[in-house]
Design goal:
This protein is an alpha/beta fold and 213 residues long. It contains 8 helices and 5 strands. The chain is 57% helix and 13% strand. The mean pLDDT is 95. The structure holds P1-(5'-adenosyl)P5-(5'-thymidyl)pentaphosphate. Keywords: ATP-binding, Kinase, Nucleotide biosynthesis, Nucleotide-binding, Transferase.
Protein backbone atom coordinates (compact mmCIF):
# COMPACT_ATOMS: atom_id res chain seq x y z
CA UNK A 1 0.00 0.00 0.00
CA UNK A 2 1.46 3.34 -0.94
CA UNK A 3 -0.80 5.79 0.93
CA UNK A 4 -0.38 6.48 4.65
CA UNK A 5 -2.88 6.17 7.48
CA UNK A 6 -2.79 8.82 10.22
CA UNK A 7 -5.14 8.49 13.19
CA UNK A 8 -6.24 10.99 15.83
CA UNK A 9 -7.34 9.62 19.19
CA UNK A 10 -8.56 11.00 22.50
CA UNK A 11 -11.48 11.42 24.87
CA UNK A 12 -14.64 13.28 23.86
CA UNK A 13 -13.90 16.98 23.33
CA UNK A 14 -10.14 16.40 23.03
CA UNK A 15 -10.21 18.31 19.74
CA UNK A 16 -9.98 15.36 17.32
CA UNK A 17 -12.25 16.78 14.61
CA UNK A 18 -10.38 20.08 14.67
CA UNK A 19 -7.03 18.22 14.55
CA UNK A 20 -8.10 16.07 11.57
CA UNK A 21 -8.90 19.18 9.56
CA UNK A 22 -5.58 20.78 10.53
CA UNK A 23 -3.71 17.68 9.37
CA UNK A 24 -5.50 17.56 6.03
CA UNK A 25 -4.60 21.23 5.46
CA UNK A 26 -0.99 20.60 6.43
CA UNK A 27 -0.68 17.57 4.12
CA UNK A 28 -2.09 19.72 1.32
CA UNK A 29 0.74 22.21 1.93
CA UNK A 30 3.22 19.35 1.46
CA UNK A 31 1.59 18.63 -1.90
CA UNK A 32 -0.33 15.59 -0.59
CA UNK A 33 -3.76 16.36 -2.00
CA UNK A 34 -5.34 12.92 -2.31
CA UNK A 35 -6.45 12.65 1.32
CA UNK A 36 -9.67 11.16 2.67
CA UNK A 37 -11.18 11.70 6.11
CA UNK A 38 -12.83 8.84 8.03
CA UNK A 39 -14.46 8.55 11.43
CA UNK A 40 -15.09 5.56 13.70
CA UNK A 41 -17.52 4.19 14.33
CA UNK A 42 -18.89 5.16 10.92
CA UNK A 43 -17.78 6.00 7.42
CA UNK A 44 -19.88 3.47 5.43
CA UNK A 45 -23.69 3.12 5.33
CA UNK A 46 -23.64 0.02 7.57
CA UNK A 47 -21.01 1.45 9.91
CA UNK A 48 -23.03 4.68 10.26
CA UNK A 49 -26.10 2.64 11.25
CA UNK A 50 -24.02 0.82 13.83
CA UNK A 51 -22.79 4.20 15.11
CA UNK A 52 -26.40 5.31 15.64
CA UNK A 53 -27.16 2.08 17.45
CA UNK A 54 -24.07 2.37 19.67
CA UNK A 55 -24.65 6.03 20.58
CA UNK A 56 -28.44 6.21 20.98
CA UNK A 57 -29.66 6.31 24.56
CA UNK A 58 -33.37 5.80 24.15
CA UNK A 59 -33.96 3.79 21.00
CA UNK A 60 -34.11 0.27 22.38
CA UNK A 61 -35.97 -1.26 25.29
CA UNK A 62 -32.87 -3.34 25.91
CA UNK A 63 -29.41 -2.67 27.32
CA UNK A 64 -26.50 -3.08 24.90
CA UNK A 65 -24.11 -5.42 26.69
CA UNK A 66 -20.41 -4.57 26.84
CA UNK A 67 -19.50 -7.46 24.53
CA UNK A 68 -22.26 -6.54 22.05
CA UNK A 69 -20.92 -2.97 22.02
CA UNK A 70 -17.40 -4.23 21.35
CA UNK A 71 -18.55 -6.49 18.52
CA UNK A 72 -20.61 -3.71 16.94
CA UNK A 73 -17.55 -1.44 17.04
CA UNK A 74 -15.44 -4.11 15.32
CA UNK A 75 -18.21 -4.80 12.78
CA UNK A 76 -18.24 -1.08 11.93
CA UNK A 77 -14.43 -0.99 11.83
CA UNK A 78 -14.03 -3.90 9.47
CA UNK A 79 -16.68 -2.48 7.11
CA UNK A 80 -14.72 0.76 7.01
CA UNK A 81 -11.24 -0.77 6.76
CA UNK A 82 -12.07 -3.33 4.05
CA UNK A 83 -14.42 -1.19 1.97
CA UNK A 84 -12.91 2.28 2.27
CA UNK A 85 -9.51 2.56 3.99
CA UNK A 86 -7.56 -0.28 2.38
CA UNK A 87 -8.79 0.48 -1.16
CA UNK A 88 -7.90 4.17 -0.63
CA UNK A 89 -4.38 3.33 0.59
CA UNK A 90 -3.92 0.93 -2.32
CA UNK A 91 -4.86 3.75 -4.75
CA UNK A 92 -2.13 5.85 -3.10
CA UNK A 93 -4.49 8.12 -1.16
CA UNK A 94 -3.69 9.14 2.39
CA UNK A 95 -6.28 8.55 5.10
CA UNK A 96 -6.80 10.74 8.16
CA UNK A 97 -8.92 8.84 10.68
CA UNK A 98 -10.91 10.30 13.56
CA UNK A 99 -10.43 7.29 15.91
CA UNK A 100 -9.45 3.70 15.09
CA UNK A 101 -8.57 0.51 16.97
CA UNK A 102 -6.86 2.26 19.90
CA UNK A 103 -10.31 3.62 20.90
CA UNK A 104 -11.55 0.06 21.52
CA UNK A 105 -8.43 -0.80 23.50
CA UNK A 106 -8.97 2.30 25.66
CA UNK A 107 -12.79 2.53 25.98
CA UNK A 108 -13.79 -1.14 25.94
CA UNK A 109 -10.54 -2.45 27.46
CA UNK A 110 -9.96 0.35 30.00
CA UNK A 111 -13.42 1.90 30.46
CA UNK A 112 -15.53 -1.26 30.20
CA UNK A 113 -12.84 -3.56 31.67
CA UNK A 114 -13.06 -6.16 28.89
CA UNK A 115 -9.95 -8.36 28.95
CA UNK A 116 -7.21 -6.96 26.68
CA UNK A 117 -6.43 -10.51 25.43
CA UNK A 118 -9.95 -10.86 24.09
CA UNK A 119 -9.79 -7.48 22.31
CA UNK A 120 -6.34 -8.26 20.92
CA UNK A 121 -7.59 -11.58 19.63
CA UNK A 122 -10.45 -9.85 17.78
CA UNK A 123 -8.03 -7.27 16.46
CA UNK A 124 -5.59 -9.89 15.18
CA UNK A 125 -8.32 -11.99 13.56
CA UNK A 126 -10.03 -9.06 11.89
CA UNK A 127 -7.24 -6.61 11.13
CA UNK A 128 -4.14 -8.80 11.06
CA UNK A 129 -1.07 -6.60 10.83
CA UNK A 130 -3.03 -3.64 9.46
CA UNK A 131 -2.39 -0.59 11.65
CA UNK A 132 -1.97 3.18 11.37
CA UNK A 133 1.40 4.59 10.26
CA UNK A 134 1.06 7.30 12.90
CA UNK A 135 -1.36 7.88 15.77
CA UNK A 136 -1.60 11.20 17.58
CA UNK A 137 -3.26 10.88 20.96
CA UNK A 138 -4.72 14.17 22.25
CA UNK A 139 -4.52 13.88 26.00
CA UNK A 140 -7.06 15.69 28.21
CA UNK A 141 -8.40 14.97 31.68
CA UNK A 142 -11.89 13.46 32.01
CA UNK A 143 -12.95 16.66 33.81
CA UNK A 144 -11.99 18.85 30.83
CA UNK A 145 -13.62 16.34 28.49
CA UNK A 146 -16.87 16.60 30.44
CA UNK A 147 -16.75 20.43 30.49
CA UNK A 148 -16.28 20.58 26.71
CA UNK A 149 -18.96 17.99 25.87
CA UNK A 150 -21.50 19.53 28.25
CA UNK A 151 -21.09 22.87 26.43
CA UNK A 152 -22.10 21.08 23.22
CA UNK A 153 -25.48 19.95 24.60
CA UNK A 154 -27.16 16.56 25.11
CA UNK A 155 -24.83 13.67 25.89
CA UNK A 156 -25.00 10.30 24.08
CA UNK A 157 -25.01 6.74 25.52
CA UNK A 158 -21.24 6.62 26.07
CA UNK A 159 -20.80 10.29 27.07
CA UNK A 160 -23.10 9.79 30.09
CA UNK A 161 -20.64 7.29 31.60
CA UNK A 162 -19.03 8.04 34.97
CA UNK A 163 -15.83 9.94 35.64
CA UNK A 164 -14.33 6.58 36.73
CA UNK A 165 -15.05 5.14 33.25
CA UNK A 166 -13.28 8.04 31.51
CA UNK A 167 -10.40 7.96 34.00
CA UNK A 168 -9.81 4.27 33.20
CA UNK A 169 -10.13 5.04 29.48
CA UNK A 170 -7.57 7.84 29.68
CA UNK A 171 -5.18 5.74 31.77
CA UNK A 172 -5.35 2.92 29.23
CA UNK A 173 -4.71 5.39 26.37
CA UNK A 174 -1.63 6.71 28.18
CA UNK A 175 -0.31 3.25 29.07
CA UNK A 176 -0.65 2.05 25.46
CA UNK A 177 0.80 5.25 24.00
CA UNK A 178 3.85 5.09 26.25
CA UNK A 179 4.82 1.64 25.01
CA UNK A 180 4.34 2.20 21.26
CA UNK A 181 6.55 4.68 19.46
CA UNK A 182 4.07 5.00 16.58
CA UNK A 183 1.69 6.68 19.06
CA UNK A 184 2.58 10.25 19.98
CA UNK A 185 1.04 12.13 22.87
CA UNK A 186 -0.05 15.77 22.62
CA UNK A 187 -1.10 17.77 25.66
CA UNK A 188 -4.56 18.89 24.51
CA UNK A 189 -5.43 20.68 27.75
CA UNK A 190 -3.55 23.68 26.35
CA UNK A 191 -5.15 26.52 24.38
CA UNK A 192 -6.24 25.59 20.87
CA UNK A 193 -3.39 27.49 19.13
CA UNK A 194 -0.77 25.68 21.26
CA UNK A 195 -2.33 22.29 20.51
CA UNK A 196 -2.30 23.12 16.80
CA UNK A 197 1.35 24.14 16.89
CA UNK A 198 2.29 20.87 18.71
CA UNK A 199 0.35 18.95 16.10
CA UNK A 200 2.16 20.70 13.24
CA UNK A 201 5.50 20.04 14.89
CA UNK A 202 4.84 16.30 15.30
CA UNK A 203 3.53 15.87 11.74
CA UNK A 204 6.39 17.91 10.22
CA UNK A 205 8.94 15.86 12.15
CA UNK A 206 7.33 12.54 11.20
CA UNK A 207 7.07 13.45 7.51
CA UNK A 208 10.69 14.57 7.44
CA UNK A 209 12.10 11.62 9.37
CA UNK A 210 10.02 8.89 7.73
CA UNK A 211 9.54 10.14 4.22
CA UNK A 212 12.27 12.80 3.75
CA UNK A 213 9.67 15.46 2.84
N1 LIG B 1 -15.95 4.68 20.86
C1 LIG B 1 -15.50 4.80 19.59
C2 LIG B 1 -15.66 3.57 21.65
O1 LIG B 1 -16.12 3.46 22.79
N2 LIG B 1 -14.83 2.62 21.14
C3 LIG B 1 -14.35 2.66 19.86
O2 LIG B 1 -13.65 1.74 19.41
C4 LIG B 1 -14.69 3.82 19.05
C5 LIG B 1 -14.17 3.92 17.66
C6 LIG B 1 -17.51 8.18 19.20
C7 LIG B 1 -17.94 7.55 20.51
O3 LIG B 1 -17.72 6.17 20.40
C8 LIG B 1 -16.83 5.73 21.40
C9 LIG B 1 -16.12 6.95 21.88
C10 LIG B 1 -17.13 8.05 21.68
O4 LIG B 1 -17.97 8.07 22.82
P1 LIG B 1 -16.96 10.53 18.32
O5 LIG B 1 -17.76 10.88 17.17
O6 LIG B 1 -15.54 10.19 18.09
O7 LIG B 1 -17.72 9.48 19.22
O8 LIG B 1 -17.17 11.68 19.21
P2 LIG B 1 -16.41 12.41 20.27
O9 LIG B 1 -15.12 11.87 20.73
O10 LIG B 1 -17.51 12.57 21.27
O11 LIG B 1 -16.10 13.68 19.40
P3 LIG B 1 -16.17 15.14 19.85
O12 LIG B 1 -16.66 15.94 18.69
O13 LIG B 1 -16.82 15.33 21.16
O14 LIG B 1 -14.71 15.41 20.20
P4 LIG B 1 -13.51 15.91 19.38
O15 LIG B 1 -13.68 15.67 17.91
O16 LIG B 1 -12.33 15.36 20.05
O17 LIG B 1 -13.52 17.46 19.65
P5 LIG B 1 -13.88 18.70 18.74
O18 LIG B 1 -12.75 19.04 17.87
O19 LIG B 1 -15.21 18.49 18.11
O20 LIG B 1 -14.01 19.76 19.88
C11 LIG B 1 -15.02 19.67 20.85
C12 LIG B 1 -15.23 21.03 21.52
O21 LIG B 1 -14.12 21.34 22.31
C13 LIG B 1 -13.54 22.59 21.90
C14 LIG B 1 -14.01 22.79 20.46
O22 LIG B 1 -14.04 24.14 20.12
C15 LIG B 1 -15.38 22.18 20.51
O23 LIG B 1 -16.30 23.09 21.02
N3 LIG B 1 -12.08 22.44 21.98
C16 LIG B 1 -11.31 23.19 22.76
N4 LIG B 1 -11.60 24.16 23.64
C17 LIG B 1 -10.57 24.73 24.30
N5 LIG B 1 -9.25 24.38 24.12
C18 LIG B 1 -8.92 23.41 23.24
N6 LIG B 1 -7.63 23.05 23.11
C19 LIG B 1 -9.97 22.76 22.52
N7 LIG B 1 -10.01 21.78 21.61
C20 LIG B 1 -11.30 21.59 21.29
Amino acid sequence: MSGKFIVIEGLEGAGKSTACHEIITLLYQYGIKNVIYTREPGGTPIAEQLRTLIQQKEMLKEEITDYAELLMLYAARIQLVDNIIKPALERGSWVVGDRHDLSSQAYQGGGRKIKPDFINHLKEELLGDFSPDLTLYLDITPEISLQRTQKRGALDRIEIESLGFFTRTRNRYLALALKDKRIQIIDATQQQNKVTSQLHKKINQWLQESYKF
